[in-house]
Amino acid sequence: DAMVIQNPRYQVTQFGKPVTLSCSQTLNHNVMYWYQQKSSQAPKLLFHYYDKDFNNEADTPDNFQSRRPNTSFCFLDIRSPGLGDAAMYLCATSDGAGDSYEQYFGPGTRLTVT
Amino acid sequence: GQNIDQPTEMTATEGAIVQINCTYQTSGFNGLFWYQQHAGEAPTFLSYNVLDGLEEKGRFSSFLSRSKGYSYLLLKELQMKDSASYLCAVKDSNYQLIWGAGTKLIIKP
Fold it and tell me: Which of A26, A38, B45, B83 is the 20 to 30 A CA-CA neighbour of B101?
């Protein structure tokens, strides 16, 4: 089945220790997104790529970086995680960015910072 | 600023009908989405409205009034598995999705 895969599902890191979250897709979608979601809050868009065109949201902290080496893979790097970065990180894809294109989400990576 | 409002929590009884409302104020409008999110899981797509009116899909229906900046999701014949959060999201003039914080729906037997 075509899908969005995120690894790992659960990640524990220490305060200040860099961590990388990964996402892959078999849907061959042009657009990939990274969201941060905290409990009972709306998903917060961090980055999105339209093909290789990188788009950084204005309020995404510099501590967060992203890479998309090819169509299938996308990575989220957190250079120096703080306690406030503990959250669910969701990767999503869509076949385009126009009006009716829905987003397909991976299962998420729950990040704990100790 | 851009804003999506939904009730924080609702409770309903198994077998009943529930309506979850969403009001929005966004810079432009290119469609409204409803997603279901079970606890600890990723959101899954339920419905999309871009024109006024009702879209029906099985037990779930979604309504849109663009002039009022209003939508609702109607769930019929509620089942225990419908216990989840329901997120309303609007695509703005830049085709960015603006998300609501979600409505947590609790189903009681």
Answer: A26
Q: Which residues of B5-43 are buried (b: 16+ CB within 10 A; e: fewer)?
A: ebeeebebeeeeebebebbbebeebbbbbbbbbeeeebb
Higher pLDDT, B33 or A2: B33
Q: Of B43, B85, B102, which is closest to A105 when you measure between CB atoms?
A: B43
Structure confidence at residue A2 (pLDDT):
65
Query: Which DSSP symbol is given to B79?
Result: -
- Residues with pLDDT less than 50, chain A: none
Q: Using an 8 Å Cβ cutoff, are B48 and B32 in contact? A: yes
- In one-letter notation, the amino acid at residue A111 is L
Query: Nearest CA to B80 among B9, B7, B12, B6?
Result: B12
If one counts every other C-beta atom within 10 angstroms of the C-beta of residue B75, the result is 21
Q: Collect all residues of chain B within an 8 Å Cβ-Cβ radius of residue A45.
A: 96-97
